[in-house]
């Protein structure tokens, strides 16, 4: 998911939120929503689909106000359905508030038992229920309630939360998912999952929200509260591999440059005799460029991607993922016929799309396909915000590398190893979650029999 928040007393902010969400569309394509406050009430508009198809200028004009939060959703818990779209809104203790969540909690079941509301739709609903409960029973404001509730949450969260008067951002103590603070020339403040969403609204990136930090933005400016300290950092390493936009920075590291370094390292670790290095567009492009440069092999395009199709990995059902593949890619026959290809892919999760893509390249006349992957085998479920809970759908959990090579129809297959991948990202290899690649989970996972829990 992607989250965005803005507070600017000098202008209506629904359009800024729309632009910010547009820049975060890659983080979730199932639903999108905006909650806006005019100082007296909070209005929410959300729907299934892409930001651009949901919000017409007409619809944005119906959202007046100088403070807003926005959300694009990629379902991790709870079905892909309208009632799970965010922001979630509630009325409690005489106050309207709204919440957007990126990440996934691992103790939802335990928390649900305390809400007294029975089964909730998603982990984010449970958080809204806990906030409402605290505000009602303790007659507290939203900031106090948030400070009270956050320490009870385990797992991954970057939140944007607001009531009529204040905007709140919070990041879990491990910092699994990113969250940034930006400033506008007008004196306004912005929160966003990634820096390109700050760029697009003309905000200057001030800093990342720290793991375990909550910021409260109101008439007095920005106030920071560190609600948790001392937990090991665990920024999702997959943000660098696949999730984040290449034009952004995470933990001070440029994503595009990190992907390029992964490609250079992959060429050194797993060379191949070939005529052309090509990416599976788009997220593998910097890696393929790095590979080609390091290997001294020509870089070229072998596939054209239809840019008007969402990521198939993110589509909510297997059936949809299957049918989306042929629509998504087409081979450039003139570039691949008779060629020995190094095909660079960022990761192999379920392999559905990739298998069909390999067939496309073969049908277009590729002589050899040497598949090179910019990350290690994805063998373990993610409980922190990627929809890979079911281990049996992960191709590397059930097949050896040789079996995957044959399954995909490649002539050779090699993955980047974990240490090399982390070294390519940064010199300091601590501070990353690598659970889906190593099985070492930074937090306990209640009820997950297959999780090998790290320390
Ligand atoms: Fe990221 Fe993998 Fe950790 Fe999930 S398990 S947070 S995808 S590194």
Could you characterize the architecture of this molecule?
Catalyzes the formation of phosphoribosylamine from phosphoribosylpyrophosphate (PRPP) and glutamine. Pathway: Purine metabolism; IMP biosynthesis via de novo pathway; N(1)-(5-phospho-D-ribosyl)glycinamide from 5-phospho-alpha-D-ribose 1-diphosphate: step 1/2. It catalyses: 5-phospho-beta-D-ribosylamine + L-glutamate + diphosphate = 5-phospho-alpha-D-ribose 1-diphosphate + L-glutamine + H2O. Its EC number is 2.4.2.14. It is an enzyme of class 2 (transferase). This protein has 455 residues and is an alpha+beta fold. The protein has two domains: 230 residues, Aminohydrolase, N-terminal nucleophile (Ntn) domain (Glutamine Phosphoribosylpyrophosphate, subunit 1, domain 1, 4-Layer Sandwich), CATH 3.60.20; 192 residues, Rossmann fold (3-Layer(aba) Sandwich), CATH 3.40.50. The chain contains 17 helices and 23 strands. The strands form six sheets. It has a seven-stranded antiparallel β-sheet with strand order 3-2-4-1-10-9-11. Strands 5-6-7-8-12-13 form a six-stranded antiparallel β-sheet, with helices on one face. Strands 17-20-21-22 form a four-stranded parallel β-sheet, with helices on both faces. Helix 5 crosses helix 6, helix 9 runs antiparallel to helix 16 and helix 11 packs parallel to helix 13. The longest helix is centred in the N-terminal third of the chain and has 16 residues. The radius of gyration is 22 Å and the shape is globular. It starts with a strand and ends in a 17-residue tail after the last helix. The C terminus is likely disordered.
